[in-house]
Every structure is written in structure tokens, then in C-alpha cells.
Amino acid sequence: MGLPKIPIRFWIAVMVFASTYINYTTRSNMSISITSMVGSSKNKTVPECKRNDKELVSDNATVKALPDYGPRYEWSESIQSFVLGSYFWGYVISSAPGGFIAEWLGPFNTIMYSQIVTAIFNSLSVWAAQMHFGALIFCRFILGLMAGPVYPALQSLIAKWAPPAEKGKFVSALMGNTLGTCLTWVLVGSVTAAAGWDWGFHFLTIQIAVFCLVFWLVVADTPDQHKWISEEEKSYIKTAQANTVSKGKVVPPYLKMFKSLPFWSLCILHFGNLWGLYLQITGVPKFMVEVIGFNIKASGGLAAMPHLLRMFFGMGYGYLGDVLKSKTKLKPTIIRKSFVIFSHLIPGILLMCMTLVKCDHVGAVFILIFSMAINGAAVVTNLQNAQDLAPNFAGSIFGIISLIGGTTGFITPAVTGALIGKNSGIKEWSVNFLIGGSVYVGAGLFFIIFGTSDIQPWNEKVVSKNNEEAVSFKEVDKDQELTDKKVEPSETTRLNN
Fold first, then answer.
1. What is the model's pLDDT at position 300?
2. Sequence-separated contacts (24+) of 424-431 with Cβ below 8 Å
3. Fewest beta carbons less than 10 Å away: which of 84, 223, 286, 373?
């Protein structure tokens, strides 16, 4: 007797993971590469917690020779911030229409074409830097513009492939972004040291090319369009989804969406999560360097540990969410709101506790690691709720909340800059952590009060007679309840854990 066949949707989930991994390589590589592209900066002030350390004060005044990784440019801190920020300008602009693009062109075309353009402009960044920093800023802007539609497209792909009982596993595959961040820091740093910073860019382009080839072979927009899927698996997916996902291409019901309290509850939840997450990713390490005097990046695995634990915890949360939905009588809304405690409330409280660590770097490291890890529960809350509200328009929903939530990428640094502009000390950072923790907790409480996982009436697609007929929302609800109770996949079609 042969081994059971691995279902096609397992490989789709693997490619969702790979897509988020690739998406984050070009997002995070510049923060590593730019240190090898610029000359030495002015001496920074001694951290508040190290001002009595005479040896550190003496070392701070010493200018060290920079290694030769290629040409270096005399870019000011302001220019460097523009180079780093230009990616996010493009990302925010394309996030909202990204959902509509993905639903109209299909997630396969959206992701494939965006990655092809990304590969081209990623390598062009090398010659752009040599021409003028403005050309590099333009390339980074295009890279962000191409990245914006990827997550909405993945939400659309998940909606078409994932049975309701397996949504958690599929959405947890979005955690490939954390691996993308960690490995990019390591790989780009190693390639730069061995061959120069230009090959740090070209190496990522080669990765993208390999990804595109595998993606082209493995992925299709829907089970109906896949070349190798069995009729048994195709039938299981269709039956499990109970007609909640339609084929017709229509303009998303934006007006109804914007009038929906569940939509705004999700939007606020996502905004709060990104505010807290960006503050943890960028603010806490900055606090540890500038105030405590402890460089987490110089401490081996500590730099990657928070991100890797968030990925592993996220996958565990996704599996647990699916188990609770299929094996218990808990309503999906109760499950979502319960997991908000872990994705928002506890991380928010831990951020506020950063005000208590003062000069204790051990306490700060512990809070960063534990808070990032437990926030992996976001795969069951703000990363999955769009699938609940309207699977037909999950991409559009996620694109809009990514646009609004993405503004925290500008707001958080602006708030931090305003607070520590004159002095980067414990007092100023304490206020910053209290604000961030409050946003985290406030967003979570808002969703607990007003959020829901119930499918919304505006999920129904109204299409022409020549296209697929609209599905009755009441019938969908009834069918979905029966499906959740009765439909079970056979051994050959069950998604491997």
C-alpha cells in the first residue's frame, strides 16, 4: 500500500509561505545593505545607562576603518532615511487597490508579474545607487509599489483554496515574512562580506527568479484551474466552502464595506497590531542601543529569536484555531475575540512594562522576545478576519486595512522622533511605550466589543446573467453551518499538518 497523496492545497499553502518570504527579502535588505554603502557617520551620544562607563566614552570617540565592500557614498542621515522610507511610500499607495487588482486579474497574475518587476528593479538598484541617490529612491519606491498587492492577492488565493476548517493553517503561512526578515539579514550580510554589497542585491534577484519558476509550476487561481488536482479534492474544497466563494468579477462593494462596523473593527484591530509591532521591531532595539547601551544585533541569535518565535507561535496558533473551530462548540467569533487577548492585550501590557526595565537589558530582551512570540496569535485575529467577513472580497478588505494600518510605518517613527528629539532617555521612551501599549490594548478592546466573524451580506456578488448568478446570503449561512458540522475530508485529501 502506497503513501497517501499529498493534497494540492498543501503545496498552495507552501507557496503562500514562500510568497511572503520573498516579499520581505526586498523589504528588509536595504537596512542591512545601506550600512555597507555609506561612509562613517558622526559620533553618537553615549547611552544614558552607560554615561559612567569611561572606557565606552573613550571608544565612542575612536574612528574605525570601514571594510571595503564596494563604493561608499557620503549620504546624510536625511538621505538615508529617504532611501529606507521610499519603499513604504510605494507600498502604502498600492495596498488598497491591490485587493481589487488581485480579484480582477487573479492572484496568480498579480503575484507573478509583481515579482518579475521586483526582480528587475532590485538589481537595477545597484546601478541606480551609482548614478544618484534619487535614482535609488525611485527604484525602492517601485519595489514598494509592487509589494503592496501581494498580501491582498494572497488573501484572495487563500479564500479560493482553503476549506473553512483549514483557514488557520493557510493564514499562518503568511508568517513566512518573519523568516524572510531573519534570513535576509544573515544571507545579505554574508554575501556582502564575501562579494560586495552589489551582490547582496543580485543574490536576492536570483532567489526571486527561482521562486517565480516554482510558483508558475505549482499555483493556480482556483482548484478548477489547477492541472494536477484530483476530482476528489476539488469536490471537497467546493463542498466545504458551501458557495461562499463566487467566480464572477465585479467591483467590490466599497460603500457597504465602509458603512460596516465589523469592517472598521477589523481595520482598527489591524492598525493597533501594526503600531505595536513596528514599535517592537524598530523602537525597542533602538531603545536598547541608545538608552541601555546593549546592541541586540551583536548578540548572535537574539536578533532573530523574536521573529522566529513569532513565526513558530503563529503557525501553532493557526493550527489551534482550526482545532477549536472543528472540535469544539465554540462560535468562530468567540475564538477570534479570545485570541485577541494574545495578539493585542498581553503584548500591549508588556510594552507598557518596558517603562519598568530602566537599565536592565535582560528584562528588555525578555519582553521583546515574549511579546513578539505571543503576538503570533495575529494569524487568528486581524490576519484571518477578512476571510470571515467576506471571502469573495478578502483581498480588497486586506488591501484597505493594509493601507490604513501601513500609515503606522510613518506615524510610529514620527511619534518616537517627536518624543526623543531633544533627549533620548528613559523618561521620553517610557512615554513612547505607554502610548504604543495603549494603542495595542485599545484596538483589541474595540474589536472584542464590536468585532465579529459572521459573514456579511455584502459578500454576495451581484453579477450579470452571462456570468455566475448571485448566491443567496441566507442559503450560504445555512449551508455553511451544515458544512462545518458534517463535511470531513478523506485521508487522501486531508491537509497535512
1. 54
2. 424/45, 424/48, 424/290, 424/291, 425/48, 425/291, 426/48, 426/291, 426/358, 426/359, 429/283, 429/287, 429/291, 429/354, 429/355, 430/354, 430/355
3. 84
